[in-house]
Write a structure and sequence with these properties.
Layout (H helix, E strand, L loop, with lengths): L6 E3 L3 E3 L4 H6 L8 E6 L2 E6 L7 E5 L5 H14 L3 E5 L5 H12 L4 E7 L2 E6 L8 H25 L2 H30 L1 H7 L3 H28 L8 H26 L3 H29 L4 H32 L4
Parallel strand pairs: 5-6
Antiparallel strand pairs: 1-2, 3-4, 6-8, 7-8
InterPro entries: PhoU (IPR028366), PhoU-like_sf (IPR038078), PhoU_dom (IPR026022), SpoVT-AbrB_dom (IPR007159)
Pfam families: MazE_antitoxin, PhoU
Organism: Halorubrum lacusprofundi (strain ATCC 49239 / DSM 5036 / JCM 8891 / ACAM 34)
């Protein structure tokens, strides 16, 4: 760390010198324009770039299938606006994989294809994206998936179960958008400034979005389990699972209300209420375990997995409540 003394020139202008090592590494010289970004009691500076869109290149010669999909997704989440995929000769299978990956990412489009090159570009303006709106949408989708998964289980509705499984892709797309926005705020203060949110708050949204994505995964798991059920379930077990689901949703909803609350006292009250609800759910799960003991082992194991998924969903709501408490706490 280096320190500099602030000086006054012209009687009213404050000046401070820039460390030469940093200036050299970032191509800063006489005449270079510098951007300043206030962040609380800190002030960040960065060289102004003429390049409006960040470009990234990756060699996909030896990549295929999931590895290639993951490579495209990683470049997207990392914040590249233009992704250039290059190879000695890009195969038809690779092109198909790239197109499928692009379809699963919000804003991406394939702009150019040649024998050894595919160019993908993000057509959305990052400054117009709202991390708050994305997390709000994730809340609605994840809770509707969980509700419909339990309904499909209760009614043995396989079509509804398949619909729940299909909606998981929508939730994953939003999760990747939130991750992209969050990483942008870590990389440059300008991104947080355009969002109009402190970077700490962006972290809280990102952390909570991860919990919502996991809730969607468990809803999908319940839907898959439902596809293996052909015979009616005992009424007392169905009723108990529905009550457990109601308690879990109340925890998640209360925790999300706490996260979005503007008043710190209200946020703290709601978050503590959600945490208390998680402890109450543990008692209900033990009661359901007693009911499952009277069933045959195969069915008891299947329903036990369903109960575990609902319990874990409530736990994720408790994690959101913990984040809401931290968000509401006084800033050091």
């Amino acid at each position: 760390m280096e320190t500099r003394k602030v000086q006054v020139t012209g009687g009213s202008t404050y000046t401070v010198s820039i460390p030469k090592t940093w200036a050299t590494e970032n191509d800063v010289e006489a005449g270079t324009e510098i951007e300043f970004h206030p962040d609380g009691d800190s002030l960040f500076l960065t060289p102004r770039s003429e390049e409006e869109r960040t470009r990234g290149t990756i060699d996909i010669t030896d990549l295929s299938g999931q590895a290639l999909t993951r490579a495209v997704t990683t470049m997207y989440v990392s914040g590249f606006d233009v992704i250039e995929l290059e190879g000695t000769e890009i195969t038809t299978e690779q092109r198909s994989t790239v197109r499928e990956a692009v379809q699963g990412l919000v804003g991406l489009e394939v702009l150019e294809e040649t024998r050894n090159r595919v160019v993908v570009q993000d057509l959305l303006d990052s400054s117009e994206l709202s991390i708050h709106n994305a997390v709000t949408r994730m809340r609605l989708i994840s809770l509707s998936m969980l509700e419909d998964a339990i309904a499909a289980l209760s009614e043995r509705d396989h079509d509804l179960a398949r619909d729940v499984i299909g909606r998981d892709d929508d939730l994953d797309r939003l999760w990747l958008v939130v991750s992209r926005i969050f990483r942008a705020t870590l990389r440059t203060p300008k991104a947080a400034e355009e969002l109009g949110l402190p970077r700490e708050e962006c972290f809280d949204y990102h952390s909570s979005a991860r919990q919502l994505e996991r809730i969607g995964d468990h809803a999908t798991k319940i839907a898959h389990l439902t596809l293996n059920i052909d015979e009616p379930l005992p009424d007392d077990v169905v009723e108990a699972v529905n009550e457990l689901h109601g308690d879990a949703v109340e925890v998640i909803d209360t925790a999300m209300d706490a996260l979005f609350a503007d008043d710190s006292e209200e946020a703290t009250r709601l978050a503590n209420e959600a945490r208390t609800g998680v402890r109450a759910i543990d008692e209900r799960v033990r009661a359901i375990d007693e009911l499952l003991r009277d069933l045959d082992p195969t069915r008891a194991q299947l329903l036990g997995l369903v109960v575990d998924s609902v319990l874990r969903s409530a736990d994720y709501g408790g994690n959101v409540a913990e984040t809401a408490l931290q968000k509401a706490a006084p800033t050091p």
